[in-house]
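Below is how a single chain appears once it has passed through the pipeline. First comes the sequence as given, then the structure the pipeline wrote out for it. We keep one example in the README because the format questions we get most often are answered faster by looking than by reading.
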Amino acid sequence: MPIIRLEMLSGRTPEQKVALAEALTRETARIAECAPKDVQIVFAEVAPTNWAVGGRIVGNGVAQSTS
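Resulting structure:
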């Protein structure tokens, strides 16, 4: 049973999550040769203030130095 954990910045709409779940389920089932009902997806939303890229906190869309 495939389990996908998708971490992303918070702010996606429910409609976007549905579209992601449908696409990820469809393609995972196809490639893994399993039933779509066996694919599980966990959306883990992270606040921008808890996400860093290249040593900088993403914040509110503006990269902020951690030092």
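The chain has one helix and five strands.

See the next section for the split statistics.
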